[in-house]
Amino acid sequence: MDATKKIVAEVFNEIAEGIKSGSFGKKVRIGLTTFGSEHGVEEMVKAAEMAKGKYGDFDIVLIGPKVEGDFEVVEVKDAEEGHKKMVELLEKKELDGCVTQHFDFPIGVSTVGRIVTPGKGKELIIATTTGTTSTNRVEGMIKNAISGISVAKAVGIKNPTVGILNLDGARGVERALKDLQANGYDFRFADSLRADGGAVMRGNDILAGTPDVMVCDSLTGNLLIKIFASFTTGGDYETVGYGYGPGVGEDYDKLVNIVSRASGAPLICEALRYCSLCAKNDVLSKAKIEFGKAREAGLNDIIGKLLAKEKPVVEEEVKMPPKKVVTFSIPGVDILELENACRALWKEGIYSESGMGCTGPIILVPDDEGEKSIEVLVKAGYK
User: Which residue positions are annotated as catalytic (predicted)?
Assistant: First the structure.
């Protein structure tokens, strides 16, 4: 009985929200540009037909050549004109969102993709997959995490877990996100399924879908989406998942979801559904709110310190201490900071060497100086 009451309460809440926003009873309108696919216009129309038959709770507007079928069509002569018309319709609010192939987002905006993992059939959000959030890798991944959280909430995950893919810069991203968390930005880290756990994820965690949101740079995310979307078809026809997702940035105001020119109808069908959910739940407003919360928790200061740390400075000459046997291993220092971290230890008279363990970069120091070395690295901001 309690479960029934809860469902009824949720339904009434949704109705109240719909009346308040003026959207009750309205279907969102999602565009689909039909030029540009490597599989032809027919494949795009097939995707629209699949989405209409499978879901039916949003309207689809085709932007392309005139076609047979029960769809509204905005006629254009080619892909370039299709993009111009798409932007015009979005700006006029005649569309709530649009699915398209290849779109030039401004710097600061990148797309948040969504896949289905082959290991356990779990949905996994990849933040991000195309576009450039920042020209600085670590800054970009920090902001990608916030974008990923925004999209996760838009598709119904109220308290998403965040994992950071084990790439160059991952440890710096982890430190920054922990600082944000300590300053009051509320989110949860995922814990790797591997024995040593932690928020930095391995390849195994991608296959299992350990976090709700996997943070990475766009080039890596793009590769992941392509592999997961077409691993059963040989690469030229993407079938699985939801595509490369909506472009998200701090102040971006157009809902544009990306698919590949290699995407097939089954994937594009789900991309249309993904776009409709993002439109219904106003993902771009959610992103503004999340970035606002992050700024209140010191996002700009954290990134400012990060960028200042990376500026070239005139270093005082630091002599390497006399060589010793090094068997104490210190993980958790980012590979991009490894050599500077070693120099910080040399400055304190501690001999150290950099290396690579099975979980990533490590610093090796003498056993009797292990704890002191960790204190030095923490104080210097490398761990």
Answer: 358
